[in-house]
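Narrative of accomplishments. A recurring question from our advisory board has been how the design workflow behaves on a single, concrete structure rather than in aggregate. To address it, we present the structure tokens for one chain from the evaluation set, followed by the sequence designed for it. No filtering or post-editing was applied between the two.
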């Protein structure tokens, strides 16, 4: 009987501990979008220059532009990015840049479904202010992978502590590559392999505003990490996943923390289906 009681106590404690590790609600708030909302959004980031709005981008065969949508689902203006092309934009991040005190957008043009491209690109420019409809001064950061291979990459993270760009490939298993700062804007940079994950099919990534928490997503699941010390993002990705959150979306590729760190947003492509797209918000518990 004592052994049985001890087992029950241990089981209860285990369940309690498991509950306490749930950082985010698994019941997302669904925010319906207009039926005319673009169906190929592959990356997003919460805006600092326009609080309450998200920056969005679409992937290949779409214009070189950013879209905007409010946190409550209202579609806003487009911002055209002059002098660049959208070969296969897959993700974006916001972080430090050349001018201190400004936020910069980093667009990852490194999708490569057919492993056909020799050089990949990151586009960087200061985050547009309210009312701006075009950008004409984007930096072009070209790079190759240090293993000499082609990779299909749909996830980018920007490390404000080092100014390094971290790329996570979609392949199985997912590989981590780092573009070390400073970048050469007049030549080709090399993304250095910095880890391998036990996960595959990574379609998006997000780093919390304080740089201490990290999300990766696939079509079906969102994975959460938290720093336990002062290590790098690459080291954090080698730690144990703290939480796995199911994602019920047609073709989920976009994810970002809200800038007040109160939770995170996700958005899916429509996968060519006649479906109602929702912006989802997962609040912190």
């Amino acid at each position: 009987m004592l052994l049985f009681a001890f087992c029950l106590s241990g089981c209860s404690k285990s369940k309690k501990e498991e509950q306490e590790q749930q950082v985010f609600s698994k019941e997302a708030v669904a925010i319906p979008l207009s039926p005319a909302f673009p169906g190929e959004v592959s990356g997003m980031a919460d805006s600092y220059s326009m609080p309450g709005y998200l920056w969005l981008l679409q992937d290949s065969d779409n214009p070189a532009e950013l879209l905007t949508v409010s946190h409550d689902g209202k579609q806003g203006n487009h911002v055209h990015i002059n002098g660049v092309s959208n070969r296969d934009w897959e993700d974006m991040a916001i972080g430090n840049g050349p001018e201190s005190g400004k936020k910069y957008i980093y667009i990852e043009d490194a999708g490569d479904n057919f492993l056909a491209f020799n050089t990949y690109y990151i586009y960087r420019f200061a985050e547009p202010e309210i009312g701006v409809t075009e950008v004409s001064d984007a930096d072009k950061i070209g790079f190759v992978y240090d293993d000499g291979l082609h990779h299909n990459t749909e996830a980018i993270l920007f490390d404000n502590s080092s100014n390094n760009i971290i790329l996570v490939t979609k392949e199985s298993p997912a590989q981590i590559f780092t573009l070390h700062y400073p970048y050469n804007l007049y030549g080709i940079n090399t993304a250095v392999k910095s880890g391998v994950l036990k996960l595959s099919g990574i379609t998006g990534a997000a780093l919390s505003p304080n740089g201490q928490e990290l999300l990766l997503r696939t079509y079906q699941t969102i994975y959460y990490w938290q720093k336990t010390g002062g290590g790098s993002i690459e080291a954090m990705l080698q730690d144990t996943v703290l939480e796995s959150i199911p994602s019920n979306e047609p073709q989920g590729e976009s994810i970002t923390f809200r800038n007040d760190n109160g939770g995170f947003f996700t958005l899916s492509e429509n996968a060519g289906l006649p479906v109602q797209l929702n912006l989802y918000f997962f609040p912190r518990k």
